[in-house]
Write a structure and sequence with these properties.
By secondary structure, this protein is α+β, with helices and mostly antiparallel strands. It has two domains: 282 residues, no CATH class; 35 residues, no CATH class. Helices cover 41% and strands 16% of the residues. The chain has 14 helices and eleven strands. Strands 1, 2, 6, 7, 8, 9, 10 and 11 form an eight-stranded mixed β-sheet that branches. It has a three-stranded antiparallel β-sheet with strand order 3-4-5, with helices on both faces. Strand 10 and strand 11 form a beta hairpin. Helix 2 packs across helix 9 and helix 5 crosses helix 7.
Length: 386
Amino acid sequence: MEDTVSEDKDDYKSIEGIVGVDEAIAIQNDKLNKLREDVKTLQFKRVDIAGDYSSITYKAIDGGKMKVYFNPFEINVIDVADSNGQKKLSFVYPEIDEYDDNSNSKEATKGLIQKIDSIPLIAKFVTLLKSNSITEISSIFNSSSTLMEIGELACIFDRITADSDDPIIIMKDGLLRTKALKSNKNATYIPELLNIIKQKKKFVKLVGVSKTSAVVSLLSTALFLEKKIPSDAIGYVKIPLALELKAYEWNGSGKADKSNDEALTYAFGELYIAKLAVQSNLLVTIEIPKDLKNKTDIYTEEEIIEIISYLAKDSKHSYPVIGYPQTIMRAHETAVQLGFPISIIREEIKDKILKRLDPASREFVRDGWLLTDLVDKGVLGGGKNG
């Protein structure tokens, strides 16, 4: 028996003992060749750095990312901040349904949702969508990520609908498309938001920018091999829907129908792959609003070029990631409240939790947190440096 185990281990010292390696690689190579043929049809458009817009980004971050967690009390502190250093929203939301698949998340958090609904920016956003509560516009409430997205959208559309004639570009960190809002064939929330963008497009431009995406992951190798994006240029290629659908399997209400180029119901617009700095080979994915249902543009081609040229201006000397808009990175820096301020919030929440417990539980939980802190800091050894 021992000899058999030894032989099995030896088999996996090389790929010679694995069946089907060459065949699998051949199949994937055929896939790459087909993508290269698709990419050959794309046109690279150069852009010049220009634009007189101001810019702003709203960034949400939760307590897990800010190291505010109190296992087994899973409470996320959600903040939304802008790139000007202003905190726009702040509330908490628990992680739920992780251990009990039968619990009703809406019922369990009914009181908390009502409080979140009463936040002015949230209330305004819900009203824009002709609804009374975030529970009407979304059906996913077992994770704080849903509330983070809704918080960002609330801030974005508060600025879009503001009574201001100052030209501004709102950059979303990540693509505009979202699964936080109901997006089946009967829901009209994204079309409602697109109508608002149409009405305000003269003074406000909205764009989503992402460092990673399924489209870039799929096409980057083919784009490189076909030399579609010059290393010494700033510009973009537009991704046709047929090619986009090769990267996205779900359309929002079921499996995407790729036979008739059915648009994704949760998408805000069309996708572009862009290179925003000569000094960087970073390829970003850009989503620019378009009425996909009716196949009508919101921004003209000249406005799209203007938007991308401004993104390039914002990314020219960006730090620490050259080629990614500095405005977005500033918003992230504000949202991540590391250091002294967040340590105060963390301790205040801990105190509130302990006050709710009986004496025996209080002592046990307090000791558990203390032990966890000591391990995290490496005081007891065997931690990060162990």
